[in-house]
Write a structure and sequence with these properties.
Elements: H1 3-11, E1 17-19, H2 20-27, H3 31-43, E2 48-51, E3 54-56, H4 66-71, E4 76-78, H5 80-86, E5 97-101, E6 106-110, E7 113-119, E8 128-131, E9 136-139, H6 141-150, H7 173-180, H8 186-203
Parallel strand pairs: 5-7
Antiparallel strand pairs: 1-3, 2-3, 4-5, 6-7, 8-9
Helix pairs in contact: 2-3, 5-6, 6-7
Length: about 200
């Protein structure tokens, strides 16, 4: 089987992403041979290697959907700096796509951009919208900010002060307070509430 034939059959899957196992089953070859075929197609930029055993077709994956593919089988949603920018709450464009997951904290480098996943308690995995057409989950404006404050105590320097922060007109203070109340840890909840109220006082 030629690479052109392999690519043609894979393209008939009609999916934005696929696994090495999917390719092996479709092409009726072993997984090791499928991995070699896919690696060569990736070198030719016909397909994209996202992570171990996961591949994608160029132009078919919405960048905001990347966290969902990379965090699988655990769910995730775009949040933190990326969602704050998406909701026009900060002006600086994050070079990395930030997301929240119930899986492990992990960073990925892909041809479509870098992705940084950050773990939260499953009870705090909430308040996001879902675009099923593009497989994109993104935090609400309120959850984007509360998530950011949630990670402030971490050792990472990713979550420093936000001097340029602005509340959009749609931002609902009561909704944000309800989200804070969902934080399982009393200590973390108290910290986030204090940080949030200081922001509210500063921004008026």
């Amino acid at each position: 089987m030629t690479q052109i034939e392999a690519y043609s059959q894979l393209n008939e899957l009609g999916q934005a992403t696929f696994t090495t196992a999917d390719a092996a089953a479709l092409l009726n070859i072993s997984r090791s041979n499928a991995a070699k075929v896919l690696s060569r197609l990736s070198t030719q930029k016909a397909i994209i290697h996202l992570k171990h055993a996961l591949w994608a077709f160029p132009g078919k994956v919405d960048r905001l959907a990347l966290p969902g593919y990379l965090s699988a089988p655990f769910p995730s949603y775009v949040s933190l700096q990326s969602a704050l920018y998406y909701h026009a709450m900060i002006e600086q464009i994050p070079s990395t796509l930030y997301a929240v997951t119930v899986g492990r904290t992990k960073k990925f480098k892909t041809p479509l951009g870098d992705v940084s996943l950050h773990q939260v308690n499953p009870l705090f995995f909430c308040d996001f919208t879902t675009d099923t057409a593009n497989n994109v989950r993104i935090a609400t404006p309120e959850k984007s900010l509360i998530d950011y404050l949630y990670f402030r105590p971490s050792r990472s320097r990713l979550f420093g002060p936000l001097p340029e922060l602005e509340f959009p007109r749609s931002f609902n203070l009561n909704r944000a307070k309800k989200i804070i109340n969902k934080i399982p840890s009393i200590r973390r909840k108290t910290f986030v509430r204090q940080e949030f109220m200081q922001l509210v006082a500063r921004l008026g």
